[in-house]
Design a protein that fits this description.
There is one protein chain. With about 110 residues, this protein is of the alpha+beta class. It contains three helices and four strands; from the N terminus they run E-H-E-H-E-E-H. A four-stranded mixed beta sheet has the order 2-1-3-4, with helices on both faces. Helix 1 (about 15-25) runs parallel beside helix 3 (about 70-80). About 25% of the residues are buried.
């Protein structure tokens, strides 16, 4: 099976971005990561290609998946027969928000 061409527009630290990274690693898929926090030009590129400002965005074989979680990336890859289903544990949550987007009740403070 030929590996798809993947470009992932991700944040440096974000639950959803971490989920996308974990799914791509789970399937041993090479990809180009463009960190939209570290490089504003990548954010501009993402917004131009996707037509919107929300991340992560993942481009797979010229198909842009916008504002997507790791779960949704995995579903797309399987539905489009780009990978075979894999029950391996990705090691992190693949559908978790960034810490600043979680409700206050979900954030635990350490004193």
């Amino acid at each position: 099976m030929e590996k798809p061409q993947i470009t992932a527009f991700l944040k440096t630290h974000c639950g959803w971005s971490g989920g996308v990274r974990a799914v791509l690693a789970k399937y041993d898929l090479p990809y180009t990561e463009k960190d939209i926090i570290q490089n504003p030009a990548f954010r501009w590129e993402m917004e131009t290609k996707s037509g919107q400002p929300l991340s992560p965005c993942v481009e797979i074989n010229d198909k842009m998946l916008v504002d997507i979680s790791g779960d949704e990336v995995e579903e797309y890859l399987i539905e489009n027969k780009l990978v075979q289903p894999n029950a391996a544990d990705p090691g992190v949550a693949t559908n978790a928000p960034c810490a600043h987007e979680q409700p206050a009740s979900a954030v635990q403070m350490r004193l």
